[in-house]
Design brief:
Two copies of one chain form a homodimer.
Chain A lengths: L1 E6 L13 E6 L2 E7 L3 H7 L7 E5 L5 H4 L2 H10 L6 E6 L2 H11 L8 E6 L6 E4 L3 E7 L7 E7 L5 E2 L1 H6 L7 H5 L4 E2 L5 E2 L5 E2 L6 E5 L8 H5 L4 E5 L7 H7 L4 H11 L3 E5 L9 H8 L5 E3 L5 E3 L1
Parallel strand pairs in A: 3-4, 4-5, 5-6, 14-15, 15-16, 16-17
Antiparallel strand pairs in A: 1-2, 1-18, 2-3, 7-8, 8-9, 9-14, 10-13, 11-12
């Protein structure tokens, strides 16, 4: 699982501060999460292959999270894309995008499939044999979802030498990996635990941006390996955070602690702060394993 | 009159190639012409004061000319703008912008005034005591206008020493500048030509992008000091230019020559060309005074 931060700043884009966008590589997918203005250039700058993006998840319809989407969709068309593109985002996103394509007489020549969201309860919006993606309903000035990316438990790991020694025929290996006991060439039943090891534990990534402090997400994201939680403000601006329905670094850390996540990544910084290290130290007083998002930074976990 | 090129590349934005946007400083105004994705960052990079922009002219609704507009409008709001912003562009632009603001629950707190265009004949869309702006109907895949910015003739220049010598009272200087003969302190009529010089000739700037080769614009832009004309392609791609309703450098130069403009600025280059100097040499064979637009380059004239 690899997360690349394309932008982690709030509100207005600047020369060196990009609005929210990130790509998550997980189980062969490359998911784009949010798409502020300039995301397509950030994808180029970070050498992300456009064609690998097949699913885009938009948290909410504030500009710093979605004004880059229509340009990205248009660029895919100009580059001759043929593969489907799935867009998951709040109700209304389809109209906003299609109206602009219509005005430019620039319909895509690849299938553009919208999955509009309006539920206030968590729901699974993508699933294949290796992972699920579910919404995390958040609390912000407009309808907003975070997203929880959860790997499914993998197959058990075959211990090849043990299987050979136990004279288990190759044709049964898939069954073994699925956890079954099998009969060997001599007709003996070989218990699965002699032939396999536990798989890598499935990983999970929770993305929570933008949101006011919202303890009810804790249950849903409990034990996630990594949590990206917005921290637009520092604690001394907590009244401003309340008013604008954003979180402070302290509140993000409180969520991380209660949810017992592995690592907390902070981001969505307000432009008012010059030095961002205060975000880390403020959160660090509550939750130990904190890292700061930076535009262009990748995390492997 | 000062023109700053914020972006002069066609189609998809890249790390070092920005889509179309430029600012024209003329008679105290700062006009923004087109607004591709990333224009607000280009404005910052080129240190253009946001508050000075009160009029935005959008040629057509292809993404590389207008996807940056909604973000710019939103940023103005976040920065606390109070002054009116006037947007001139094709019919439909108002709906595209307002729908996105509505979805984000992000109405501007300053007056946002749309002037939607749908005429196929030139029309004056802005006028004050110092200049006019008129549309130049162009020929492209969607409804498109260029813009002609024309200074009005200024007042005649007072020759102070001559006026004093002729004993003309100060209170008459304004009348003199307006071209009138006046009576001096001795009761003599002083002819205006003794008191004034011709003013600076009024300047004009013609912006033509995007368009197929369109000789009918020649009459309208005749004698302009500066013509910015798109040249998406070189002549060996002229069939592609025809098909996509763009121009070649050779065609842009032919327009410049027929219109007897002072300077031709080329831009809107296709991304397929590495070295742009061929644009200059191709156009230079037909029209002498050619310069190449570059992102971040300013021209004073």
């Amino acid at each position: 699982m690899k997360l690349t931060i394309l932008g982690c700043h709030s509100a207005t884009p600047k020369v060196t501060a990009h609005p929210t966008a990130q790509v998550l590589e997980i189980k062969g997918h490359l998911f784009l999460i949010d798409c502020g203005e300039g995301t397509q250039v950030q994808l180029r700058r970070n050498k992300v292959k456009f064609s690998r993006i097949r699913h885009v998840f938009i948290s909410h319809l504030h500009g710093d999270h979605f004004f880059g989407l229509v340009g990205l969709i248009s660029t895919f068309r100009l580059l001759g894309r043929e593969a489907e593109l799935h867009i998951y985002g709040p109700k209304g996103i389809k109209e906003a995008i299609t109206l602009q394509l219509k005005l430019g007489n620039s319909w895509t020549n690849y299938p553009l499939i919208f999955h509009e969201l309006d539920s206030n309860s968590p729901e699974v919006i993508f699933e294949d044999d290796k992972l699920t993606v579910e919404t995390i309903p958040l609390k912000h000035r407009v309808y907003t979802n975070g997203f929880l990316f959860r790997e499914k438990p993998g197959e058990r790991k075959l211990i090849l030498k043990a299987a050979q020694k136990a004279k288990v025929d190759k044709s049964l290996f898939n069954k073994v990996k699925q956890g079954y006991d099998v009969e060997n060439e001599l007709g003996d039943i070989i218990p699965n635990e002699l032939l396999t090891e536990d798989p890598e534990p499935p990983k999970s990534y929770a993305y929570c941006s933008d949101t006011a402090y919202l303890p009810r997400v804790v249950n849903q994201i409990k034990g996630s390996d990594v949590l990206y939680h917005e921290s637009t403000f520092l604690d001394h601006h907590h009244l401003l955070a309340e008013k604008t329905m954003h979180s402070t670094a302290k509140e993000a850390a409180a969520i991380a602690k209660k949810a017992e996540v592995g690592t907390l990544i902070l981001g969505h910084y307000s432009g008012r702060y010059g030095d961002l290290s205060a975000f880390k130290s403020e959160a660090g007083q509550i939750f130990e394993n904190v890292v700061l998002a930076e535009d262009g930074k990748s995390f492997e976990f």
